[in-house]
Design a protein that fits this description.
- The protein is an alpha+beta fold.
- It has a single domain, classed as 3-Layer(aba) Sandwich (Beta-lactamase), CATH 3.40.710.
- It contains eleven helices and twelve strands.
- Helix 2 packs antiparallel against helix 11 and helix 3 crosses helix 9.
Length: 378
């Protein structure tokens, strides 16, 4: 038998042994992870219009740290979606912002109940006072909990009209904050009502910059300490360079708005209310470390995030400081969701965090299916 034939015969024999019945040769970790991937595949098979699904489980008590994917990262090229492909987390950024603000509170820079009049920039403060806002009564906690009564620029009719007419329009934080003033009147007195508003978090970005003397995105990176916690596939789109080890960002779609995240300026959601790109793993790990208190010098600082502003709202929004209370498979959870079909939830009963991205946000109801399905298997 020639050398070449011997090599071929050896290779075939190896493949026959290693692949003949791979299920019996799975490691314990692989066997544990198999049902999670089957769940994603099953949900995607029934909902291919979702384009792609990403998920990560961080469950230290069960020794599980697993990422999975189903579908495509680009519906035009049909590029297979990989578990470590990053995507825009959208409003999940509000939890990062909350963590950074709480770090400054922990450091004694200011208090949650301090009025924002002298915390934001003098220029912005002047504009808001002139438009009738009582900045002596609006506190940091009001901004974090969406109970400030500040009108949201996103709800100004000009915002989506502009977005539709010119998706590549370059927004600035200043132009969005001014639109919040010209687009509508104050919604309520501070603390009296709940009104979800990105404007609150743009103002928090100003506070970060004034107390750290650095750009808000750098402040978040350093206060949350991405490097220490291994969050090396997390960055602000356009404002920070893509990490060398990170894959290309997945495409995300909003069919109802005819939007493709690659065919528009990401400045429409960039300045503290959105803008971060992360893998499902980084998002889930951030959430897990946050609720375990690991992002703070004093682990008990995390207790502040559950601060609740009692308002006159008829329906309890169950929103705290950059997080909202939810339900995952019948268990209480805490986390956030985002415009582009992202969500992350921490489940205290399991001491586990689950993140999920649905790349076509028109099908973001599938987030619940993924979260419930994974939690049931945990």
């Amino acid at each position: 038998m020639t050398r070449t034939k011997i090599l071929i015969f050896s290779l075939v024999a190896f493949l026959a042994v290693s692949c003949g019945d791979s299920r019996t040769r799975l490691t314990k970790t692989q066997a544990k992870n198999l049902p999670f991937q089957k769940l994603l595949d099953s949900i995607y098979a029934k909902n291919p219009e979702a384009v792609g699904i990403l998920a990560h489980i961080e469950a230290p008590n069960k020794k599980i740290s697993w990422s999975g994917a189903a579908g495509f990262s680009d519906k035009e090229t049909k590029t297979p979606l990989k578990p470590n492909d990053p995507a825009l987390v959208a409003s999940n950024v509000k939890t990062y912002m909350s963590a950074a603000i709480l770090r400054l509170v922990e450091m004694g820079k200011f208090g949650l109940n301090d009025p924002i009049e002298r915390l934001i920039s003098p220029e912005t403060s002047k504009l808001y006072i002139e438009e009738g806002y009582d900045l002596k009564s609006i506190t940091v906690a009001h901004l974090l909990s969406h109970t400030s009564g500040i009108f949201d620029y996103v709800n100004a009719k000009e915002f989506f009209a502009n977005l539709k007419a010119d998706p590549n329009y370059h927004w600035t934080r200043e132009s969005q904050l001014k639109l919040a003033l010209t687009g509508g009147d104050p919604l309520a007195a501070p603390g009296e009502g709940f009104a979800y508003a990105d404007s609150n978090y743009l103002l928090l970005g100003e506070i970060l910059e004034r107390f750290t003397r650095k750009p808000f995105y750098t402040s978040i990176r350093e206060l949350v300490n991405y490097e220490k916690h291994g969050l090396d596939c997390t960055w602000f789109a356009m404002l920070e360079d893509k990490p060398a080890r990170a894959n290309k960002r997945a495409h995300q779609y909003a069919g109802a708005y005819n939007l493709n995240s690659y065919e528009m300026s990401l400045t429409f959601d960039l300045y503290g209310a959105g803008g971060i790109v992360a893998t499902a793993e980084d998002l889930a790990k951030f959430c897990q470390y946050l609720f375990e208190g690991k992002l703070f010098d004093d682990p008990k600082t995390i207790d502040l995030i559950y601060t609740k502003i009692e308002t006159k709202a008829e329906v309890d929004p169950k929103y705290y400081l950059g997080i909202m209370e939810g339900d995952v498979n019948g268990m209480k959870s805490y986390g956030h969701g985002g415009f582009w079909g992202s969500a992350v939830q921490y489940i205290p009963e399991l001491n586990a965090s689950i993140s999920v991205f649905i790349l076509e946000r028109d099908h973001n109801k599938l987030r619940k299916d993924v979260l419930d399905g994974i939690a049931a298997k945990l």
